[in-house]
Amino acid sequence: MKKYNIENYVRWKKDITKSISRLSKVENNDYTIYSRDEMIICFLPLVENLARKFSTSQQASGVMTIMDLIQEGCSGLTKAVDRLDYSVLQESDDQEKTIKSFLSKRIRGQIRRAIDINRGDMRIPEHKLNEIRRNFGKDKKMVEMFFNSIFLSIDEKPKDGEDMVFQIPDKSEPYNMELLNVYLKGLMKKYLSEKEYEVLRLSYGLDCDKQSAKQIADELKIQGSSSYVRVSQLKKQAVEKLVENVDHSQVLDYL
Fold first, then answer.
1. Model confidence at 59: pLDDT above 80
2. Which of 53, 84, 86 is nearest to 70 (CA)?
3. Domain housing 128
4. Contact between 206 and 245 (Cβ < 8 Å)
5. Are residues 21 and 80 in the same domain?
6. How many percent of the chain have pLDDT more than 70?
7. Domain for residue 1, yes or no?
């Protein structure tokens, strides 16, 4: 961690502790009794808690110390408090949880933007940084396109009255289904639980005949009146897990 002025930090902590002790005690979880300034003071400890979760190494935050991160977080807290909707707050069963959820997102965003600005000389647009964070550096759209074509749309047919664009015949080279089945089963075993694997395998007939949701539920001993709904949920969950975990380079040859 970078060096920072310990005396200033200690003084800041004492001021916060003293200010919080002067606040009116919240009764029945009703934070609407606080004024704007009191609300800011009440959640200053949340700022430090979130700021300390950010790395303060040179690569992460450039020249910023923990005090800089806290300062940016306080700025985000102030802006967030100004945007609080007290009518929504009054209807909430757990006001503290609702407030912290609302404030945390905006405090983290403010700190992250400050880190991005101070990281180096080259300024990358924020929407691009968010895209990189979301995809962890991989092209998720390519992975989605692959698994959607294999699983989610493989057995869907155009309905009457649908746009004609969906009825254009596919002239692309067909998949080598035998090789594709082996490859898919390898990916599925690597990333899915046994139940998710079996649901996908039986649903789409990988090395077996296709089975309905009710048949799969019976085979996997999923009980209950809505067992087939659980099978559908597992199917969707399994495909989403594959999209999240498989790198685009692993499906490139099949696109």
1. no
2. 53
3. 6-135
4. no
5. yes
6. 68
7. no
